[in-house]
Design a protein that fits this description.
It is a single chain. By secondary structure, the protein is α/β, with parallel strands linked by helices. The chain has two domains: 135 residues, no CATH class; 128 residues, no CATH class. The chain is 23% helix and 28% strand. It contains five helices and 13 strands. The chain is globular.
Length: 312
């Protein structure tokens, strides 16, 4: 028994000694094990889907492509009912797609900002209630692609000249001047102004933006109309919210070629940290972009630069 224990002890000591020799004589670099953590930031882009309020609204989805024509396919796929894409898992239940199922993109061409897109005839199977909303969804989603400014829609080679049910005549080329979620507040055909204003909507604990194109009678500059609209609750839909205080005053503005300078009094600021809250900044900047085709909005308070928002 003692011999067996002694032998076991000698074996353990010998193995330990051999292990120490291996560690000592072999180069440490050969056994240097390093680990690093890396991640890829997901790129997103907005598309426009119909929400529970039956309004075409802005929702961010993961963007998988960078090539403009590949993005066109991706966007249409995201807008098509029963399409197969990974973004289906991230689109909340309160949003619905509007392009009829089985609709295919037959061909597409993009040159000098004009996208010509040729759909299969299934596109015309949209129901009457949603035919204009479908067009708004397509126009606003595709023009979020940087290279796309205008769109021509074809159905199996024939230019789409009217809506399939209402027979409303369509211009040959479509852009954001077509409007979205249109509201008419006019009393005559004089001094008609069209502005698109972005309001905040809520669903399942998160905020998203809903654009509304308002057609009204006024001689005021469009930026003044935007700020006035955002300062008051929209009477046409109680589910839309604006966070711009009624006491916020647009004291001055300067419309430049590629940007706009807006000067407010200090009631535009959040009293907690003297900043402009996100919902106010983005509602104004998105409204300016769609109304003026201006991609930078610069905010001043009492002539002091506070913030700037760019949409490229």
């Amino acid at each position: 028994m003692l011999k067996r224990l002694a032998l076991k002890k000698i074996i353990i000591i010998s193995l330990s000694f051999i292990f120490l020799l291996v560690i000592y004589f072999f180069p440490k670099d050969e056994y240097n094990i390093s680990s690093s953590l890396s991640y890829t930031e997901l790129s997103t882009m907005p598309i426009y889907l119909i929400d529970n309020n039956n309004l075409v609204s802005r929702f961010e989805v993961v963007k998988k492509n960078t090539d403009p024509l590949a993005l066109v396919d991706e966007v249409i796929n995201n807008l098509t009912i029963e399409s197969t894409n990974n973004n289906n898992n991230y689109i909340p239940n309160n949003f619905k797609k509007v392009i009829p199922k089985n609709t295919k993109v037959i061909s597409k061409d993009l040159e000098d900002g004009l996208l010509k897109i040729n759909f299969s005839k299934e596109l015309l199977l949209v129901d009457e209630e949603n035919e204009e909303k479908m067009l708004e969804s397509i126009i606003y989603s595709l023009t979020e692609i940087k290279d796309v400014k205008k769109i021509m829609i074809f159905i199996e080679g024939e230019l789409l000249k009217e809506l399939p049910h209402s027979k409303k005549t369509l211009p040959n080329t479509l852009d954001r001047s077509f409007g979205i979620n249109k509201v008419y507040d006019i009393s005559s055909m004089k001094d008609i102004t069209k502005v698109t204003t972005y309001y905040v909507s809520k669903a399942d604990g998160y905020n998203y933006y809903t654009p509304v194109t308002i057609i009204t009678n006024t001689k005021k500059e469009k930026v003044e109309v935007i700020i006035e609209r955002l300062k008051s609750s929209p009477t046409f839909n109680i589910n839309l919210v604006s966070y711009l205080q009624a006491s916020a005053e647009l004291k001055n503005y300067e419309i430049l070629e590629n940007s706009i300078n807006l000067s407010f009094n200090n009631y535009v600021l959040n009293l907690d940290d003297n900043s402009i809250i996100e919902e106010v900044k983005y509602s104004i900047a998105l409204s300016i972009r769609d109304t003026y085709d201006i991609y930078e909005t610069i905010f001043y308070v009492d002539n002091n630069l506070v913030d700037a928002i760019q949409y490229l």
